[in-house]
Amino acid sequence: MTIRTLTTCIFILLVTNVLAQRITREQYVETYKQTAIGEMLKTGIPASITLAQGILESDCGNSELAVNGNNHFGIKCHDWKGDTIHHHDDRASECFRKYKKAEESYADHSAFLLSYKRYDFLFKLDRTDYKGWANGLRKAGYATDPSYAERLIKIIEDLNLNQYDVQTAAAEPEEVQEAEPEVVRRDEVTPVVTRRTDSDFKINPFHEHVVLYNNGVKYVEVAAGDTFDKIASEFYLMTSELLSFNDLAVGADISKIRYLYVASKRNRAHRDCPTHTVKNGETAWQIAHTYGIKLKKLRKFNSLAPGQEPKVGETLSLRKKR
Fold first, then answer.
1. Per the confidence metrics, is the pTM higher than 0.85?
2. Residue 230: which CATH number?
């Protein structure tokens, strides 16, 4: 055997060994499907979408970013305060986030989508609408590839990943399957919170505030030392946006507010709360804030003029005009 032949044989053996160690799509799904389902239950992001993105972005966990940085979703550093890894992408030696384990990458993928306003519209889609999510991610600019949505959809359909969306949704309690989000009833003077089992999930480990939900809308509790600017910055919002989400004017006193919504409130209350009987001292703003609905909608439902307050004992409609 010549040296050249021997070298060729060694090369073939090395390549064969590398290929044998590569993770297949099926192995990737089996390894991470429960992680993706867990993130779906916490955040509403379809497990099929998360798995498909993981497969595409990390080459089934075989990419350099996945192997050396446990980064399965190609998320770049941005405002990241953790470990980093550099990798050639759109530009040479770009900065990417690095994680201790793959599960942290999955959690941060959820946090990333929840933290940026440009992805908010996706969370209004049904989580079984994987095509809507795929096209929405492309529209929002998650990737520069013009065929990104089509590639995600093909992966999902080839591997039947949408089964995890449907099966998990069917296995959940009936109230979680409802089209209407769960309501959290609160009293502005003496707060009483009824939280879902997943409400204590901290959306982003680098956020100071725990994200909770009321009427399907993200909110945070105001703590000592908080300012509108600080909370807005934490959630990548402009201060004017934060004030608008909460029907507040410039100059509002944050010390008198117990919680703030960090996303736009809904146009109506939960179906379980169609009306509210006005108590002594309650204002239209407090009532709208308590039920997670826009103040202008509350006024419209009840023919309340700007600045007009409801009367004590009056029953207000929270969903539609009586």
1. no
2. 3.10.350.10
